[in-house]
Specification:
Number of helices: 7
CATH topology of the largest domain: Nonspecific Lipid-transfer Protein, Chain A
Structural class: alpha+beta
Radius of gyration: 25 Å
Strand content: 5-15%
Shape: elongated
Strand order of the largest sheet: 3-2-1-4-5
CATH architecture of the largest domain: 2-Layer Sandwich
């Protein structure tokens, strides 16, 4: 495993725990999820991680175990579903994500987020002051928008490349057809050589 990915996951877990610590009820909210796990497999970008719940806290891991739920889809669909879950919206409607396993775990996760009272902006203002907190949040939103735009642009360029360069790629059926014709030609040549 790339050390940069391990460091990024560790940092994300630390930030997640710090944000959840802003609400004293977060441990009680996530307690019904203890011993449960959710495997998240992104298709764009191709990354998979597991969220395991222990002692009323979510823990992030690269390793897959016997997960209760598997979510598969692209990053935009996952973020839209995560926002809906964080708002307490239904976990049963997840556009663009393939869900395998116990939907009850997703319902419990939605209920846990619905029971939280997190005000990150207020906490940042208390710690950094209003101007610094506002600037930090604007910067984070700008970074998110930039990354999302670049991701969308890269995906569109890749799709356009494949669409325009398709004639250069040999499809499996065309390859098998070519192989069959070459094999028949080789057999005809062998028969012709034997007859001479």
């Amino acid at each position: 495993m790339n050390p940069a990915w391990v460091l990024a996951l560790s940092g994300a877990q630390h930030v997640l725990h710090q944000v959840l610590a802003l609400d004293a009820k977060s441990t009680a909210a996530f307690t019904p999820l203890n011993q449960r796990s959710i495997r998240v497999s992104l298709t764009q970008p191709a990354i998979s991680l597991t969220i395991e719940f222990e002692n009323g806290k979510p823990w992030l891991s690269w390793n897959g175990s016997d997960e209760d739920v598997r979510l598969t889809g692209d990053l935009n669909a996952l973020l839209a579903s995560a926002r809906a879950l964080a708002k307490g919206d239904s976990a049963l409607v997840m556009e663009g994500l393939q869900v395998e396993g116990s939907v009850g775990v997703l319902k419990a996760l939605s209920d846990a987020f619905a029971g939280l009272d997190l005000d990150v902006e207020d906490e940042l203002s208390k710690r950094l002051g209003d101007p610094a907190a506002g600037a930090l949040l604007m910067g984070l939103k700008a970074v998110y928008r930039t990354l999302k735009t670049q991701s969308d642009t890269a995906r569109e360029q890749a799709q356009e490349f494949v669409r325009h360069e398709q004639p250069w790629f040999l499809a499996r059926d065309a390859f098998e057809d070519f192989s069959d014709r070459a094999r028949r030609l080789r057999h005809r040549i062998e028969r012709l050589e034997r007859s001479l």
